[in-house]
């Protein structure tokens, strides 16, 4: 999910910091940097961007990508260590979806089955499935911390959050953050 410019900035910083011992053109200042991730997951989020903007922001689009040595894990350790058949089936289905090998309908949508996931028809059913008996379990921190609903669009997140909050009794407190620079009356020192 990281923007390619973050890794490129790290590259320039390491080159700068190690300029006294390495040639300035060495990638990452001549240091070995380990990057780990799954490139089949979420692309960088670009506000008001198009899918093309997200692809351009991906690390694979960086000038550094051809200098990366790629390794792929081939063993699902959860399945291997615990012999978890359900985890194996789930992982295999995810790979089939990613590889485009799973059956689709006439519109090109993947057909998910109940043995792969719990299918729901609407937000209310989803909330009830994930947060069963929310009203009575609201004070159970451990229970709430173990669950989450992920959604691909902010409008879905906002709707689900509103639906959940409407079920919660009590006073609502809103905490706002500041996302602009604040001027200060004292000097700020930056150390590099």
UniProtKB/TrEMBL annotation:
Pfam families: PIF1. GO terms for molecular function: 5'-3' DNA helicase activity; ATP binding; hydrolase activity. GO terms for biological process: DNA recombination; DNA repair; telomere maintenance. Its EC number is 5.6.2.3. It catalyses: ATP + H2O = ADP + phosphate + H(+). The keyword Acyltransferase does not apply. Residues 1-105 form the DNA helicase Pif1-like DEAD-box helicase domain. Keywords: ATP-binding, DNA damage, DNA recombination, DNA repair, Helicase, Hydrolase, Nucleotide-binding. Belongs to the helicase family. This is ATP-dependent DNA helicase. The lineage of its organism: Eukaryota, Metazoa, Ecdysozoa, Arthropoda, Hexapoda.
């Amino acid at each position: 999910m990281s923007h390619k410019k973050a890794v490129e900035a790290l590259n320039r910083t390491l080159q700068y910091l190690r300029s006294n011992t390495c040639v300035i053109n060495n990638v990452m200042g001549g240091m070995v940097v380990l990057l780990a991730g799954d490139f089949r997951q979420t692309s960088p989020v670009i506000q008001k961007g198009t899918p093309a903007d997200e692809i351009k922001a991906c690390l694979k689009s960086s000038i550094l990508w051809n200098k990366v040595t790629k390794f792929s894990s081939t063993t699902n350790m959860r399945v291997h260590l615990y012999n978890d058949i359900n985890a194996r089936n789930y992982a295999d289905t995810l790979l089939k979806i990613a590889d485009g090998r799973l059956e689709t309908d006439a519109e090109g949508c993947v057909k998910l089955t109940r043995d792969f996931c719990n299918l729901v028809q609407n937000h209310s059913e989803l909330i009830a499935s994930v947060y069963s008996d929310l009203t009575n379990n609201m004070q159970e921190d451990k229970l709430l911390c173990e669950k989450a609903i992920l959604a691909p669009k902010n409008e879905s997140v906002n709707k689900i959050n509103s639906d959940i909050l409407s079920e919660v009794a009590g006073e609502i407190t809103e905490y706002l953050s500041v996302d602009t620079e604040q001027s200060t009356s004292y000097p700020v020192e930056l150390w590099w």
